[in-house]
Amino acid sequence: MRRLSEHALELRDATSVFSLLAREMFGVFSVDDVHVVDIAQDGAVGRAQQYNLQPDGSVALGESYVQRLDDHSAAMRAAHSGRALIETDAPGSGEMNAALTERFNAASAMFLPIAVEGESRAVVVMVSHTPRTFSDDEVELIRALANQCAAALAVLEMRTRLQARAEQQTALARAARTINARLDLRSVLETLCREADLAVGSDVAGVYLGDARSGGLAVAAHGFPSDSDWYGHVMAPGEGVAGQVLVSGAAVITNDYHADVAAPVNTALSPLQTAVGVPVSWDGQLKGALSVGFRRMRRVTEEDIVSLQAMADLAAVACSNAEAFERAQIAARTDSLTGLLNHGAVQVRLQDEIQRAQRNGEPLSCLLVDLDDFKPVNDAHGHLVGDQVLQEIAGALVEEFRGYDGIGRFGGDEFVLVLTGMDEEPAQQAAERLRTAVSRTAAANDLAAGVTASVGVARWREPLSASELLDRADRALLLAKRRGKDTTVVATQEIETELARLEWHPGGPSELLADLWDMVSQCDHPHQVLRRLPRLLTSSLDIEECVLVHPELLPPDSEVLARLDGGPIGRSSLAGLQAALDVPALPVRDQPGAHAAIALEHEGELHGLLIIRIEGDTFPLTLLRLVELSAGQAVTALIGQAGGASRSAVGALAAAIDARDNYTHVHSEEVVALAEGVARQLNLSTSEIEQIRDGAMLHDVGKVAIPNEILYKAGPLDPAEWSIMREHPVIGERILTRTPELRSIAKLVRHEHERWDGGGYPDGLAGTDIPIGSRVILACDAYNAMITARPYREPMTTAAARAELEANAGSQFDPDVVAALLEVLAEELARA
Question: Residues 6 or more apart from 823 whose CB is under 8 A from it?
Answer without folding.
Answer: 681
